[in-house]
Specification:
Blueprint lengths: L19 E4 L3 E4 L18 E5 L3 E4 L10 E6 L2 E6 L11 H4 L7 H4 L22 E5 L2 E4 L8 E4 L8 E4 L6 E6 L2 E6 L34 E4 L5 E4 L12 E3 L83 E5 L4 E6 L5 E2 L12 E4 L2 E3 L5 E5 L3 E6 L6 E9 L4 E6 L8 E3 L5 E7 L2 E8 L2 E2 L1
Length: 457
Amino acid sequence: MSEVKNWTTLVKTSVTENEYLPVTGKKKFQLQSLFPSVATAGAGSESLFSSITNKNQLNFKGIKSGDTGLLTVTTASNNIVLTALEAGIDLSQCNNSTSAFLSTVDLAANVSGILPIANGGTGLSSITKGSILYASAANTLAASSPIATNGQLLIGNTANGYPSVATLTAGAGMTITNGAGSITLAASMSSAGANIDMNTFNINLDAAAGNSFVSGDGTDEGITVDASGYVGIGDTTPVVPTLAAQLSLIGNTSRVIEIGNTNSYKPYEVKVKDAAAGVGGAQLTLKGADGGSGATNGGDIAIRAGAASSTGTAGSVTIGAGDEGASGTAGTVSLTTGTTNIVGLQVDASQNVLIPNGYLRFSETPQNLVGAGAVDITTQVTNFTDTGANALTLADGVQGQTKFICQIATAGGAGTLTPTNLAGGTTITFHAVGENAHLLFTNGSWHIVGIYGATVA
């Protein structure tokens, strides 16, 4: 083997894949594999190296700013420092809709003058505390007068075309209370207007919650309506019963209905509505109260005409049946009793008085005349007892009046009756128990209808 010093020098630029270095174990190492090789790992990125020269010299690219007004490149502590210069950024060259880099604008530092409405401003340099902006004209904003009073609002004003600062005005039936940041509206029916038009709406007295009233003074009295629509009318804070009729008078005053108005006085009529064509008229029943449990009486019904004043004539009571019409039959007037309405007295269509059941009797207390005296004309019957020879008198009655005179006892004498006017005689004498006379006053005199035992002279 020759000495190393005699070997030819192999420069690195001449090394090929055929040059090797011997190693132990009868192996060799390719000399060219000792030289470096480089590659860019990032996909689509820019390489940092430029090239390799002299087999092992790595040539890297330099880094510089393309616009030194926007970016500077320096080296510090073996670091490459890239610095962005914000002052050099031209925002007009940027797309803010994509990057959204602009979120605020410093109007105080970067805008001079007053920002107009067209650019999103108000066109105003100042505004007083409590004022509100409004459009006073097309594309013009103005400030209202300050809202410095509780309850003030901006209220439309057609006179000038823009709102005015004012408070709400309470109308009839309404109370307005203005507070700090509040307006309270309260209905006040004590000051309701002259007319309340309900249109098609209802007033719910809410009977399920208790008794409510339409009252003359706000107390629990007047008119109440239950959940079935039954109406109760009562005064002096009545205790409302369970209503069982369309209208119930539940007050404490005994006079429950009074008809008429002295300012427009005339006759009145209480009537059931006439029936439709081909339908019979409905019945009207006036009925007193049934007695309660136990041995109690039923309620009476009294119909009474009005009293006269001074020398006037008192009112009369007329009970009349229905009109017969053009060719029908007049109705009858019947007085009945009992649950089956048995007729005791009836006036028929020909004005005849009938007693279909029972009998006619005079139930008043008779005059009890003992001895001489006047037979009265105020009772239907006079019972006479003689005390000897007694003189009796009888004044004139009224047309159609009847009078019964009966002797019920005797002391052995006789009673001689001398009427003021007696047809067919002057006196009637009663001598014994059982003698009697039935008289009728007509045509200005008493007429004898019937007589038993007594003598006429």
